Amino acid sequence: MAPIALGSPINRHTQLKKTDQDIADGFGTRAIHVGSDPDPNTGAVIPAISLSTTYKQDGVGNHKGFEYSRSGNPNRSALERTLASLESGGAYGLAFASGSATTATVLQSLGPNAHIVSVNDVYGGTFRYMTRVAKENQGLETTFVDLENADEEQVKHAIRDNTKLIWIESPTNPTLRLIDIPRIVAIAHTHPSHPLVLVDNTFMSPFYSSPLMQGADIVVHSLTKYVNGHSDVVMGAVILPSHHVELEERLAFLQNAIGAVPSAYDSWLAQRGAKTLHLRMKEHGRNALLVARALEKSPYVKEVIYPGLASHPRHELARRSLSPHAARFVQAEAEHNPDGSFPYGGMISFRIQGGIEEARRFLSATRLFTLAESLGGVESLAELPALMTHGSIPPAERASLGIGNDLIRLSVGVEEAADLVRDVEQALQVAVEGPSRA
Hints:
single chain; EC 4.4.1.1; pyridoxal phosphate binding; cystathionine gamma-lyase activity; cysteine biosynthesis
């Protein structure tokens, strides 16, 4: 891709450059301190919210790093520094008004008539943008591949001369399929087309997984989910390693030119949320593992999908995929999990005995799991993907992916684990046996 100059004289590479100390500090320390230097004028330890849309210049082009808030805002810049630091191996962060805006900007950066390979079990909104918006507006072609099970030849066969990107979610949404990221990276980077490898790391968050350290070129997040973590911000982000300067410039140009940027207040909220990400993700994982164990024991459940369970067929891949800091946390938890299971994020999918009616009754009977879309907040949520988050995927394709009317997705929050387990158990009994038997 040819480099595109930024629409602003701000030197983003200087702004986002990490210090040696940033790199040496642990995940939680970086989450709290990077991008949150005390205010030099007031000494405030938390950044103020900068609502100004424009900034005084001492002469034409002579300013303090900011001109106009669409091009750059102190709160957004601070958040982008935090994100680049938290995603291990990251050097540059760019924040957008939503996860969907992030997806759109990345795909638009590929230019007209490009081809991409995507994991087949991709988020419904991403599928919709690839197959409807990008296809109709820029001639983008997408080949959907089961990247969990496809062998090397099948993946290579899907890559064309004009393939510019391989899009991965791992775990996927909602069936939690695991992709061996280093394997796909090795195939992509040795192929003559040399497509970039992108990983949507929303489900794992930067705490549990570090795709850039596994060789990925781009990481994207819906910050709406775990990074913000309080269900009060809609936002997305791209994080890139230091060797992708040209790509960073291209995306930063589009970020400014398209203008799908987050507000100062939302950036401030997301940065505040990120400060407790390491604490929340540990509790999400602990709680999810206990709920998954309860589901696995229940006679009202046909299948539990949680890669942290020792019974999961790709359990060892889940363990290998852990970031270094998550691996240390998991090791510390080992004494509580003698069977080898471990916390692996807060997302669980399961198949209830019966079908649509039992699933509906379960979702109506929960007290602490709120029936709602989205995920990653401190509160527990439950939803029916086939009729909610993945309703935009054609029924035949949903069926082939295993997204049936009996599949329920849980986003396990940070409430007391025993309360969550009791809530799930009573709701299952109501759903399958009826309210009189509960």
